[in-house]
Design brief:
The chain is an alpha/beta fold. Helix 1 crosses helix 2. Strand 10 (280-283) and strand 11 form a beta hairpin. The chain has helices spanning 8-14, 66-78, 97-105, 124-133, 148-155, 160-172, 192-201, 228-238, 301-306, 311-322, 346-349; strands at 34-38, 83-87, 114-119, 138-142, 176-182, 206-209, 241-243, 252-257, 263-267, 280-283, 288-290, 298-300. The two termini are 32 Å apart. It has a single domain (8-349), classed as Aldolase class I (TIM Barrel, Alpha-Beta Barrel). The chain binds S-adenosylmethionine (SAM) and iron/sulfur cluster (SF4).
């Protein structure tokens, strides 16, 4: 079946499957079951809150090969990671990415519960069918506005109709789509209600995200910081929001809209409300593992992989990294004009 077929060039890299070993538990007794992987730092958009207009991307030689990514992700799956999310940059822009998706798809039902993707949607029309064939069941697509001109302004180069076509193609291929929207004061406040009406009308959940102070972008990010408390108040004027206790081990809190029956998620990374249940770690496209989105401490897995580590040594390196996972993050955004709390961009760590 296509979902399980592994390209020879990837299979040849690591031969036998990893031996199952102990699950990963961090020093605060949190099981680590979710790995987010940035497969590229490159993107065809330059969203104002995410990137500067003139970005310098990493030289290709710095990136993990897709074979190295597969080996590393597979090692995490062997250690109990049950969800993998590919992100970026724009994951679907990495050349050969479908080979990686198909390769990782072989773990589905064999320890891995879910293989998913966060995408800007620009390439979805092209890849939707292949993603579904590889075993992907859900994708998150970022849409900050339904106004074409505002979309172009926020993304600096995105084309809304192309993204909407991509979403349609994904749904036609049988993928569930969740919409991600960054709440931006002065840029998309007027779109909050239309976005919920559209998403729920189409049968898609939507999650709002507060801007996080990551990486230098042109201009002052605090200018567009819109607390989600304001978004919620705006929504409550139109909808009946019923709080739920549903959690996905991530930072989102969910409310169900009585009128539509669907969910709205709220991701407020600047509050500490989710660290205690954090189940995730993040791998950059260069093989750096960040144990916390909001801390600088990281482990260099490219060095481990390129030192010729065997599966046992790789597994030991994973243990050593997880043993350093901190209790929580240190984001601050309320100091006007202050430099970003973290120098790296979200596109490097992968959202
Ligand atoms: N390019 C893909 C996309 O846009 O969905 C995947 C990568 S993007 C970095 C992942 C998510 O992070 C997107 O939903 C994006 O809106 C969000 N994001 C990027 N920079 C952010 C920031 N500084 N604060 C909050 N969310 C951010
Ligand atoms: Fe690209 Fe996603 Fe960042 Fe926008 S948010 S610039 S689409 S990586």
């Amino acid at each position: 079946m296509a979902a399980r077929s592994v390209p020879c060039h990837i299979r040849a890299m690591h031969g036998s499957p990893h031996r199952p070993t102990a699950p990963l538990i961090d020093p605060f007794q949190r099981p680590i079951t979710y790995l987010r992987v940035s497969v590229t730092d490159r993107c065809d958009f330059r969203c104002q809150y995410c990137m500067a207009e003139a970005m310098t991307f990493l030289p290709k030689s710095d990136l993990l090969t897709l074979e190295e990514m597969d080996r590393l992700c597979s090692a995490f799956v062997a250690r109990g990671v049950r969800r993998l999310r590919l992100t970026g940059g724009e994951p679907l822009l990495r050349r050969g990415v479908m080979g990686l998706v198909r390769a990782l798809g072989r773990h589905l039902g064999q320890g891995l519960d879910e293989l998913t993707l966060t995408t800007n949607g620009s390439q979805l029309a092209r890849f939707a069918d292949e993603l579904a064939e590889a075993g992907v069941r859900r994708v998150n697509v970022s849409v900050d506005t339904l106004d074409g001109d505002a979309f172009r302004a926020i993304t600096r180069r995105g084309d809304l109709p192309v993204v909407l076509d991509g979403i349609r193609a994904a749904r036609d291929a049988g993928l569930a789509v969740k919409i991600n929207t960054v709440a931006l004061k002065g840029l998309n406040e007027d779109q909050i209600l239309p976005l919920v009406e559209w998403a729920h009308g189409e049968g898609m959940d939507i999650t709002f995200i507060e801007t996080m102070p990551m990486g230098d972008v042109d201009g002052d990010r605090t200018e567009h910081y819109l607390p989600l408390g304001d978004v919620r108040r705006l929504l409550a004027r139109r909808f009946t929001l019923l709080d739920t206790n549903e959690r996905t081990g991530g930072p989102a809190r969910y409310a169900r809209v009585e009128e539509t029956g669907r969910r709205i998620g709220f991701i407020t990374p600047l509050s500490h409300n989710f660290c205690e249940s954090c189940n995730r770690v993040r791998l950059t496209c260069t093989g750096t593992l960040y144990m916390c989105l909001g801390q600088e401490d990281a482990a260099d897995f490219r060095a481990v992989l390129r030192s010729g580590a065997d599966d046992v040594a790789l597994s030991a390196a994973i243990d050593a990294a997880i043993a350093r996972k901190p209790k929580g993050h240190d984001f601050v955004i309320d100091r006007k004009g202050a430099p970003p709390a973290l120098a790296r961009h979200m596109s490097t760590t992968g959202g």
